[in-house]
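no rush on this but wanted to send it before i forget. theres a chain ive been looking at and ive put its sequence and its fold in token form underneath. i want to understand how the tokens follow from the sequence so walk me through it. thanks a lot i owe you, the record is right below:
>
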Amino acid sequence: MSIRPWVIVEAPDKRGLRKVVVGSKRVGSAWSLRQLRDMLGDLGYPEDMDMEDPASVCWRGGGSGTWPDRAGRRRTAAALMMAGLLASMALNVVIGWPDAIGALTFAQRISGALFVLSGVVQGAAAITVVDYWGKRQSRNSGAIVLLGVLVALATDSLLLFMWFDEREYTPYLLVFMPAWCWSVWALWLLVRERSWRGMRRPKTFAAGVLATSLLTAVSLAYSTMYQPAAAPMRFILKAEFGTSRADHIRPFLQVPLTLYMKNAGGIPVYIINDDYTVYGRSSEYIDGDDRLEEWRRSLDENRAEDAERYVDRLEFTKISSERLYRPGDWLDVGQEFSLKRVVQIPVNTEFDTINVVLQITYMRKDRGKLDVDQFRRPHRSWDKAEGRYYCPPERCGEELYYHGRVRHNNNLVNVTRKPRYVTAVWSPSERPVYSISSFHFEGQVARSEEERDVGRYGASTAYADSEMSVAELLKSSGIGSG
């Protein structure tokens, strides 16, 4: 037998783990005497080996009864660390996956992919927790766990920062608020233990973490905070009257009306409301010098703002009001749509001119995704079968309501805000209105455009109008000739 002991058990480290060396080769570490016996048994030592025999075992820094491991505390810390990393991983994947696979723009897809990647990093860190709070067989396990916690702190801080902008309740708040508190605790614990110690190139690791953080911050700031204007919206709208014809049976003029729209911008759009209305204008002839006074009186009486020297008391009568496009349908880039209608007016009309006003309200598809199946269905305000959409005609008139959920194309906005809905109201007797807000249609819709979140979703309205004199219509039909 050699004079040198076969087994050397080193002094416990600060966690209570004792390194075991057989001859000159390290064979592992043990938290307890039982683990030591199991380890030596695997190496062929007898189960009843006398641990107190100095010829067999050399104890350094304490004898066979010195095992200062706090197993309960260590396992609790490991469990909390792993649970936090897994929860943060799930949150990041839930946020990033819809954008990574379905966002319209490249920047939004990159943002989603970064969140999915951060979830993968946290998943790897959660697996490494077992080694770091165990026997630390890998030098880099502490650094990997630290990286996962830093990623969790960064993403949770971003979510919290965005939530503070509006401070609206969302179920995700119950996840990322505790997750942020956990990440602060986890970072404090890892820094206190200097978890990066033991890795071969700590400076390279730190530089990589810094570069990744900057890249992620720039990408998220670009896709979340910055709303690019590189592809502005441009609509081409036309509303034109054609050559009129006299009805051979009834005393009416048939006036052709051509309506046209084209998405000439660089982004597809949803049409959320539209309307074209034909008016007949009538007026009284006056011969006076002071038209300013008449103009003021017209404003006071809530009539037209036109100021003409020989025209007073302008009145506009609605002849017809219809829809051009189905709400919820979209126009792709370059897509155009036209519609032809015939407007009928009496031959002996008192109108001086007829006017048409066309308006289209749209929402950019790169800013939001509309639930078109829900939004396309019109709800009649006068029908009691519509349930929550019903409003007595004496109070609301007769209106069509369109209502549907809209989700921002950056899922970070969706999880830090209350749900948003698009509501469009159309009536032949009133101008069309719309809103994009958290309003979820409980009760009457105010015709005044209430709380609106149109800027975030790129909603806007385009207009076109046209006017033609009745005298010209009569002449073109042959009635006014001669």
User: Anything to note?
Assistant: Residues 235-477 form one domain.
